[in-house]
Amino acid sequence: MTRPSTVAALGLSGACFAIIGLVATRRLQITLRVLYVDGRYFVAVRHFGEWRELREFVQPFSPSVVGAQASVWGCLDWVCRNISYQKDDGEFWQYPSETLGKMDGDCEDSTILLVSMLRGFTNAHVVLGDYQGWGHAWGASEAGEILETTITEAIAVPDPEAYHPYVLFNDQEVIEMWPGALREVFQLRRNKAAKLSLMASAFT
Length: 204
Known about the structure:
204 residues, C8orf32 fold, five-stranded antiparallel beta sheet, three-stranded antiparallel beta sheet, 39% helix, globular
Protein backbone atom coordinates (compact mmCIF):
# COMPACT_ATOMS: atom_id res chain seq x y z
CA MET A 1 0.00 0.00 0.00
CA THR A 2 1.40 3.37 -0.99
CA ARG A 3 1.85 5.84 1.82
CA PRO A 4 -0.23 9.05 1.61
CA SER A 5 2.93 11.14 1.57
CA THR A 6 4.15 9.21 -1.47
CA VAL A 7 0.80 9.70 -3.22
CA ALA A 8 0.94 13.43 -2.51
CA ALA A 9 4.51 13.53 -3.77
CA LEU A 10 3.51 11.68 -6.93
CA GLY A 11 0.59 14.05 -7.46
CA LEU A 12 2.84 17.06 -7.04
CA SER A 13 5.39 15.49 -9.34
CA GLY A 14 2.69 14.86 -11.97
CA ALA A 15 1.53 18.46 -11.75
CA CYS A 16 5.10 19.69 -12.13
CA PHE A 17 5.58 17.51 -15.22
CA ALA A 18 2.31 18.86 -16.65
CA ILE A 19 3.45 22.46 -16.12
CA ILE A 20 6.88 21.69 -17.58
CA GLY A 21 5.14 20.07 -20.53
CA LEU A 22 2.99 23.15 -21.16
CA VAL A 23 6.01 25.45 -20.94
CA ALA A 24 7.98 23.19 -23.28
CA THR A 25 5.07 23.11 -25.73
CA ARG A 26 4.83 26.89 -25.67
CA ARG A 27 8.56 27.24 -26.24
CA LEU A 28 8.37 24.70 -29.07
CA GLN A 29 5.65 26.71 -30.76
CA ILE A 30 7.67 29.90 -30.43
CA THR A 31 10.64 28.09 -31.97
CA LEU A 32 8.62 26.08 -34.50
CA ARG A 33 6.42 28.56 -36.35
CA VAL A 34 6.44 26.80 -39.73
CA LEU A 35 5.10 23.43 -40.85
CA TYR A 36 5.23 21.94 -44.34
CA VAL A 37 2.43 19.44 -45.00
CA ASP A 38 1.81 17.95 -48.45
CA GLY A 39 3.34 20.95 -50.18
CA ARG A 40 1.36 23.44 -48.08
CA TYR A 41 2.85 26.03 -45.75
CA PHE A 42 1.38 26.48 -42.27
CA VAL A 43 2.40 29.18 -39.80
CA ALA A 44 1.69 29.64 -36.07
CA VAL A 45 1.29 33.40 -35.90
CA ARG A 46 -2.05 33.87 -34.18
CA HIS A 47 -3.51 32.27 -31.05
CA PHE A 48 -1.65 29.57 -29.11
CA GLY A 49 -2.00 26.21 -30.85
CA GLU A 50 -3.58 27.75 -33.96
CA TRP A 51 -1.94 26.91 -37.29
CA ARG A 52 -3.05 28.65 -40.49
CA GLU A 53 -2.20 27.95 -44.10
CA LEU A 54 -0.09 30.90 -45.29
CA ARG A 55 -2.30 31.77 -48.26
CA GLU A 56 -5.35 32.22 -45.99
CA PHE A 57 -4.10 35.62 -44.87
CA VAL A 58 -4.50 37.30 -48.26
CA GLN A 59 -8.25 37.77 -48.77
CA PRO A 60 -9.03 39.77 -51.93
CA PHE A 61 -12.73 38.99 -51.84
CA SER A 62 -13.37 39.81 -48.20
CA PRO A 63 -16.34 42.24 -48.15
CA SER A 64 -14.34 44.74 -46.11
CA VAL A 65 -11.56 44.77 -48.75
CA VAL A 66 -13.46 44.75 -52.05
CA GLY A 67 -14.72 48.34 -51.83
CA ALA A 68 -11.23 49.72 -51.29
CA GLN A 69 -9.73 48.50 -54.56
CA ALA A 70 -8.46 51.18 -56.98
CA SER A 71 -4.94 51.42 -58.45
CA VAL A 72 -1.70 49.93 -57.11
CA TRP A 73 -0.29 53.24 -55.88
CA GLY A 74 -3.73 54.49 -54.86
CA CYS A 75 -4.18 51.44 -52.62
CA LEU A 76 -0.67 51.80 -51.23
CA ASP A 77 -1.21 55.47 -50.47
CA TRP A 78 -4.51 54.72 -48.71
CA VAL A 79 -2.88 52.07 -46.51
CA CYS A 80 0.10 54.31 -45.70
CA ARG A 81 -2.10 57.25 -44.72
CA ASN A 82 -4.81 55.37 -42.84
CA ILE A 83 -3.26 52.31 -41.16
CA SER A 84 -1.17 53.36 -38.18
CA TYR A 85 1.94 51.37 -37.39
CA GLN A 86 1.42 49.45 -34.17
CA LYS A 87 3.93 46.82 -33.12
CA ASP A 88 2.39 43.66 -31.74
CA ASP A 89 3.29 41.78 -28.58
CA GLY A 90 5.23 38.81 -29.89
CA GLU A 91 4.12 37.58 -33.31
CA PHE A 92 0.41 37.92 -34.14
CA TRP A 93 -0.74 38.27 -37.73
CA GLN A 94 -4.07 39.97 -38.41
CA TYR A 95 -6.51 39.19 -41.18
CA PRO A 96 -7.35 42.15 -43.48
CA SER A 97 -10.74 42.70 -41.83
CA GLU A 98 -9.07 42.87 -38.41
CA THR A 99 -6.55 45.45 -39.60
CA LEU A 100 -9.36 47.53 -41.11
CA GLY A 101 -11.36 47.20 -37.91
CA LYS A 102 -8.50 48.44 -35.75
CA MET A 103 -6.99 50.76 -38.39
CA ASP A 104 -3.53 49.74 -37.18
CA GLY A 105 -1.05 46.89 -37.36
CA ASP A 106 2.61 46.14 -37.93
CA CYS A 107 4.44 45.52 -41.19
CA GLU A 108 2.93 42.16 -42.09
CA ASP A 109 -0.59 43.29 -41.13
CA SER A 110 -0.57 46.40 -43.33
CA THR A 111 1.13 44.49 -46.16
CA ILE A 112 -1.39 41.62 -46.03
CA LEU A 113 -4.19 44.22 -46.19
CA LEU A 114 -2.55 45.99 -49.15
CA VAL A 115 -1.97 42.79 -51.12
CA SER A 116 -5.54 41.66 -50.41
CA MET A 117 -6.74 44.95 -51.93
CA LEU A 118 -4.45 44.59 -54.95
CA ARG A 119 -5.29 40.96 -55.65
CA GLY A 120 -8.80 41.98 -56.66
CA PHE A 121 -7.46 43.45 -59.91
CA THR A 122 -3.74 42.69 -60.31
CA ASN A 123 -1.04 40.25 -59.31
CA ALA A 124 0.84 41.16 -56.13
CA HIS A 125 2.58 39.35 -53.29
CA VAL A 126 3.33 39.76 -49.62
CA VAL A 127 7.10 39.52 -49.22
CA LEU A 128 8.71 38.28 -46.01
CA GLY A 129 12.40 38.94 -45.72
CA ASP A 130 15.30 40.95 -44.43
CA TYR A 131 15.61 44.73 -44.23
CA GLN A 132 19.14 45.72 -43.17
CA GLY A 133 19.40 42.62 -40.99
CA TRP A 134 15.92 42.82 -39.44
CA GLY A 135 12.85 40.72 -40.18
CA HIS A 136 10.38 42.70 -42.29
CA ALA A 137 7.36 42.42 -44.59
CA TRP A 138 6.51 44.50 -47.65
CA GLY A 139 4.48 44.23 -50.83
CA ALA A 140 5.65 43.45 -54.36
CA SER A 141 3.65 44.63 -57.36
CA GLU A 142 3.27 42.68 -60.58
CA ALA A 143 5.99 44.92 -62.02
CA GLY A 144 8.33 44.01 -59.14
CA GLU A 145 8.05 47.35 -57.33
CA ILE A 146 8.68 47.36 -53.56
CA LEU A 147 5.50 48.56 -51.83
CA GLU A 148 6.45 49.79 -48.36
CA THR A 149 3.44 50.16 -46.06
CA THR A 150 5.08 51.34 -42.82
CA ILE A 151 5.59 54.93 -44.02
CA THR A 152 3.01 57.73 -44.18
CA GLU A 153 2.62 58.10 -47.95
CA ALA A 154 3.14 56.06 -51.09
CA ILE A 155 6.62 56.73 -52.43
CA ALA A 156 9.28 54.64 -54.16
CA VAL A 157 11.74 53.28 -51.62
CA PRO A 158 15.13 55.04 -51.79
CA ASP A 159 17.10 51.92 -50.81
CA PRO A 160 15.73 48.90 -52.73
CA GLU A 161 19.08 47.14 -52.31
CA ALA A 162 18.35 46.89 -48.55
CA TYR A 163 15.30 44.65 -49.13
CA HIS A 164 16.12 40.94 -49.37
CA PRO A 165 13.14 38.64 -50.09
CA TYR A 166 12.93 35.19 -48.53
CA VAL A 167 9.31 34.26 -49.27
CA LEU A 168 6.55 35.65 -51.50
CA PHE A 169 2.92 34.66 -51.08
CA ASN A 170 -0.65 35.62 -51.90
CA ASP A 171 -3.99 33.81 -51.88
CA GLN A 172 -2.91 31.53 -54.73
CA GLU A 173 0.73 30.62 -54.18
CA VAL A 174 3.73 30.52 -51.87
CA ILE A 175 7.21 31.01 -53.35
CA GLU A 176 10.27 30.27 -51.24
CA MET A 177 13.44 31.80 -52.66
CA TRP A 178 15.26 28.65 -51.46
CA PRO A 179 14.14 25.53 -49.56
CA GLY A 180 13.50 26.34 -45.90
CA ALA A 181 13.41 30.12 -46.45
CA LEU A 182 10.08 30.51 -44.64
CA ARG A 183 11.50 28.92 -41.50
CA GLU A 184 14.52 31.23 -41.73
CA VAL A 185 12.23 34.29 -41.77
CA PHE A 186 11.28 33.57 -38.16
CA GLN A 187 14.95 33.33 -37.20
CA LEU A 188 15.72 36.88 -38.33
CA ARG A 189 16.34 39.50 -35.66
CA ARG A 190 13.26 41.30 -34.33
CA ASN A 191 13.53 44.85 -33.01
CA LYS A 192 10.85 47.01 -34.55
CA ALA A 193 12.07 50.25 -33.00
CA ALA A 194 15.57 49.73 -34.41
CA LYS A 195 14.19 48.77 -37.82
CA LEU A 196 11.90 51.81 -37.98
CA SER A 197 14.80 54.04 -37.01
CA LEU A 198 16.85 52.69 -39.92
CA MET A 199 13.93 53.15 -42.29
CA ALA A 200 13.31 56.70 -41.10
CA SER A 201 16.93 57.63 -41.80
CA ALA A 202 16.72 56.06 -45.26
CA PHE A 203 13.52 57.94 -46.16
CA THR A 204 14.76 61.38 -45.06
